[in-house]
Amino acid sequence: MTQSVTQTPAQTLTPPKQWQQFVRAFMKNKGAVLGLIVLIIFIFIAFFAPWLAPHDPYELFQGKEQLPPSFVSGGESAFFLGTDDAGRDTLSRVLYGARYSLFIGLCATTLSLLIGVSLGLAAAFWPKVIGKVIMLVNDILMSYPSLLLAIIIAAILGPSMTNTIITIALVCLPPFIRLTRATAMVELQRDYVTASRVIGVGTVRMLFVTVLPNCMAPLIVQATMVFSSAILEAGAIGFLGFGVQPPDAEWGAMLGTARQYIQSNVWLAIFPGLAIFISALAINLTGDGLRDALDPKLKEVS
């Protein structure tokens, strides 16, 4: 006679994996989901701008200068968002501007992350000499307002997209250095680090393979915030004339060009400014969702 073994529901259910918990926590934040969707749309626009733009962003339409949007009296259907002071299609330039602004923000954030993490780890591992020097320079950089520091560096390097990326990367360094150092100093006191030292793990491997992965959660959140700040900084530098130069279709440069026509044709400034605002807001919302999903203290106990 055989006995049938029945499994209770508690035995059949398996706990969700870590990535499943992350996705569930992120999806609960409706604002973060909306921000991610908008960010994906902007990335899609940046990649497919040549096919989405109705006109060449550099094409000059004679006699069509400073047309208002087509939905406003005086506009033309061929130019949905109107034209700029040189007769170029505003919609096409805003679409192409996503390429410049997102590329500058992404490159500056990546460069700042790589340098900041390396310096932060060095400051945590050698706190007596190297750490003091790094944190002293870091405190000096943080004592300046970020926009003022960006303007000074951009004025020294000169106006170009490459120099804009370098400028923003330098301005965004301090938060990465401080956060990496603080997180790494906590991790260096853990037992697994002591065990790694006992078995003879090298310094570089210990910092970048053993310690760094355990510091990535707050760094990912910080990177999203810096990405948003980088887009705003690029727009501000371009507006002041120290960034990407006209006729390149960058949102900040478009705002700088529209500055002198703000009273006669406010539409020239509204659309690139709105693009900067929406993209920065979407990235911030996504970063908030990542913070809530990655921080165990903020997760709901089920």
Automatic annotation (TrEMBL):
Gene3D superfamilies: MetI-like. It is found in: Cell membrane. Residues 98-287 form the ABC transmembrane type-1 domain. The chain crosses the membrane at residues 32-53, 100-126, 133-157, 163-180, 192-213, 219-244, 265-285. It is a multi-pass membrane protein. Keywords: Cell membrane, Membrane, Transmembrane, Transmembrane helix, Transport. PROSITE patterns: ABC_TM1. InterPro entries: BP-dependent_transpt_permease (IPR050366), MetI-like (IPR000515), MetI-like_sf (IPR035906), OppC_N (IPR025966). Pfam families: BPD_transp_1 (PF00528), OppC_N (PF12911). Belongs to the binding-protein-dependent transport system permease family. PANTHER family: D,D-DIPEPTIDE TRANSPORT SYSTEM PERMEASE PROTEIN DDPC-RELATED, OLIGOPEPTIDE TRANSPORT SYSTEM PERMEASE PROTEIN APPC. This is ABC transporter permease subunit. It comes from Vitreoscilla massiliensis.
